């Protein structure tokens, strides 16, 4: 197993993702500043881009911990809301956003729980008649 | 048509998966070390399979990350505005950074 080569590739993939993320982050930041009639300096954009990526990775760690603590392997909206527990305003905002997301959910994604039933499968017994 | 840019769920998903597979590999490595040190492993541990995220969880995560960026800008903009400036500079960001990091 190529330990160091594999690690190099991993790191370059991570850097690619990081750069794409930072570009998105900058786009969001600029747009938000414009909404307030403001410009943003480049150092500020670079800082926000960097910080938000670090936050994203930290969020991934927290979400995994919450899901696993709840005995799940899959992260859901409750985990995301829980990750904001230090800031009540933020939790409230997220919960209301989550309700909006739930409302927009297509019907097919809603699971209906069927109560498990034991069915009496009466197998017709085959009577073996030996032809004499 | 969306006016506001947002994070691409696929991008966020990729970033999350990278983190989760890295951590799953670390757990597997630690478990292998435990075995070598003489502890009996009860078969492949459930912890080694990496975490996943459902569609809504991913959407909400994108929203949360977007909020982080917009909060940073909004708070810094408030400071800049109070100083009579129309450009958000590093000094403005510095002022709001501690509370921002505490809040998130």
TrEMBL record, chain A:
<dbReference type="GO" id="GO:0046982">
    <property type="term" value="F:protein heterodimerization activity"/>
</dbReference>
<dbReference type="GO" id="GO:0000712">
    <property type="term" value="P:resolution of meiotic recombination intermediates"/>
</dbReference>
<dbReference type="InterPro" id="IPR009072">
    <property type="entry name" value="Histone-fold"/>
</dbReference>
<dbReference type="GO" id="GO:0006281">
    <property type="term" value="P:DNA repair"/>
</dbReference>
<dbReference type="InterPro" id="IPR029003">
    <property type="entry name" value="CENP-S/Mhf1"/>
</dbReference>
<protein>
    <recommendedName>
        <fullName>Centromere protein S</fullName>
    </recommendedName>
</protein>
<keyword id="KW-0238">DNA-binding</keyword>
<feature type="compositionally biased region" description="Basic and acidic residues">
    <location>
        <begin position="117"/>
        <end position="132"/>
    </location>
</feature>
<dbReference type="Pfam" id="PF15630">
    <property type="entry name" value="CENP-S"/>
</dbReference>
<comment type="similarity">
    <text>Belongs to the TAF9 family. CENP-S/MHF1 subfamily.</text>
</comment>
<dbReference type="GO" id="GO:0003677">
    <property type="term" value="F:DNA binding"/>
</dbReference>
<dbReference type="GO" id="GO:0071821">
    <property type="term" value="C:FANCM-MHF complex"/>
</dbReference>
<dbReference type="GO" id="GO:0003682">
    <property type="term" value="F:chromatin binding"/>
</dbReference>
<keyword id="KW-0234">DNA repair</keyword>
<feature type="region of interest" description="Disordered">
    <location>
        <begin position="101"/>
        <end position="132"/>
    </location>
</feature>
<dbReference type="GO" id="GO:0031297">
    <property type="term" value="P:replication fork processing"/>
</dbReference>
<keyword id="KW-0227">DNA damage</keyword>
TrEMBL record, chain B:
<dbReference type="GO" id="GO:0003677">
    <property type="term" value="F:DNA binding"/>
</dbReference>
<comment type="similarity">
    <text>Belongs to the CENP-X/MHF2 family.</text>
</comment>
<dbReference type="GO" id="GO:0006281">
    <property type="term" value="P:DNA repair"/>
</dbReference>
<dbReference type="GO" id="GO:0000712">
    <property type="term" value="P:resolution of meiotic recombination intermediates"/>
</dbReference>
<keyword id="KW-0227">DNA damage</keyword>
<keyword id="KW-0234">DNA repair</keyword>
<dbReference type="GO" id="GO:0071821">
    <property type="term" value="C:FANCM-MHF complex"/>
</dbReference>
<keyword id="KW-0238">DNA-binding</keyword>
<keyword id="KW-0539">Nucleus</keyword>
<protein>
    <recommendedName>
        <fullName>Centromere protein X</fullName>
    </recommendedName>
</protein>
<dbReference type="GO" id="GO:0051382">
    <property type="term" value="P:kinetochore assembly"/>
</dbReference>
<dbReference type="GO" id="GO:0031297">
    <property type="term" value="P:replication fork processing"/>
</dbReference>
<dbReference type="InterPro" id="IPR018552">
    <property type="entry name" value="CENP-X"/>
</dbReference>
<dbReference type="Pfam" id="PF09415">
    <property type="entry name" value="CENP-X"/>
</dbReference>
<feature type="region of interest" description="Disordered">
    <location>
        <begin position="28"/>
        <end position="52"/>
    </location>
</feature>
């Amino acid at each position: 197993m190529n330990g160091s080569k594999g690690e190099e590739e991993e790191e370059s993939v991570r850097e690619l993702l990081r750069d794409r993320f930072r570009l998105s982050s900058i786009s969001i930041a600029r747009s938000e500043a414009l909404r307030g009639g403001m410009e943003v300096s480049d150092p500020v954009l670079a800082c926000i881009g960097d910080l938000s990526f670090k936050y994203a990775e930290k969020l991934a760690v927290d979400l995994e911990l919450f899901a696993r603590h709840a005995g799940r392997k899959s992260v859901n909206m409750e985990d995301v809301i829980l990750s904001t527990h230090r800031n009540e305003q933020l939790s409230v905002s997220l919960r209301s956003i989550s309700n909006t997301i739930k409302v927009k959910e297509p019907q097919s994604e809603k699971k209906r729980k069927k109560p498990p039933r034991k069915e009496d499968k009466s197998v017709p017994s085959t009577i073996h008649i030996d032809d004499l | 048509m969306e006016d506001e840019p947002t994070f691409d769920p696929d991008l966020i998903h990729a970033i999350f998966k990278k983190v989760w597979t890295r951590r799953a590999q670390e757990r597997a490595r630690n478990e292998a070390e435990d075995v070598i040190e003489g502890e009996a492993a009860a078969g492949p541990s459930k912890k080694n399979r990496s975490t996943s995220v459902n569609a809504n969880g991913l959407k909400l995560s994108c929203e949360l990350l977007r909020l982080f960026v917009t909060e940073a800008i909004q708070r810094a903009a408030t400071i800049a505005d109070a100083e009579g400036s129309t450009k958000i500079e590093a000094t403005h960001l510095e002022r709001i950074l501690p509370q921002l990091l505490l809040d998130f």
